[in-house]
C-alpha cells in the first residue's frame, strides 16, 4: 500500500463558503456534494480512478489537532479493507466546523481529493448504524464519519472505525455513492462547504472523535 510519499499527486481541496459561515440553505441542495457557487452547475472531478458512476466517499470525524498522518493512515487502512485504493476515492467529507482543521486539510491533499463539509444539522438527518452520544452533545448530530460518508445516498462499505492513535483522534467510514456529482476546482488549502443553516453554532467537537 502506498504511503504519503507515493500517494497520488494532491488535487485541490475545494471551497464554497468559509467554514462555519452562516448561509441560506439552497433548496437545490440534495446533500450529495453540489458546489457552493450558487449556479448548480457541476464541474469535473480532478480525482477518482475507479467507476465514475460509483465512487467512494470517506467520512471523517476528528478531534482538534489531529495529525494528518493519523487520518491518512486510517483512510488507507479502511480502503484496503474494502479492497480499494485512494484512486477510487472521490472526496473526504466531514462536518463544517472542521473545514479548517490542518490535519484534515493536509490528509485530503495527500489523498488527492477535495474536502467536502456538511452542517451538523444536515448530518443529523442521516440514519447511521453506529450513532454516538459524544458528537450529539457537542454538535447536535449523533454521527460525523458515517453520516458524512452516507449523506445523499449510497452504501456503507466500511463502517465507522477509529484510528490507531493513543488516544484515537479520528474516525472514518467509507461509502460507495453512485452518481456522485462533480466538485469544483479551487485553490488548495480551502474547503468546500455546503449551505449551512443560519445561526448554527460552531461548537467544538469533543476530544473523543465522533
Topology (elements, then pairings):
Elements: E1 54-62, H1 68-81, E2 89-95, H2 102-111, E3 115-118, H3 120-124, H4 133-139, H5 145-150, E4 155-162, E5 170-178, E6 192-193
Parallel strand pairs: 1-2, 2-3, 3-6
Antiparallel strand pairs: 1-5, 4-5
Helix pairs in contact: 1-2
C-alpha Rg, in Å? 15 Å
Q: Enumerate the spans where pLDDT stays under 50 for 5 or more consecutive residues.
A: 1-53, 186-190, 194-208
SSE series: EHEHEHHHEEE
CATH topology: Nucleotidyltransferase, domain 5
- Name the beta content range: 15-25%
Query: What is the total domain count?
Result: 1
Mean pLDDT: 71
- The coarse silhouette is globular
Helix amount:
10-25%
Please tally the helical runs, counting DSSP H or I stretches of 4 or more residues: 5
Major sheet: order of its strands? 4-5-1-2-3-6
Name the structural class.
Answer: alpha/beta
CATH architecture: 2-Layer Sandwich
The span between the termini is: 26 Å
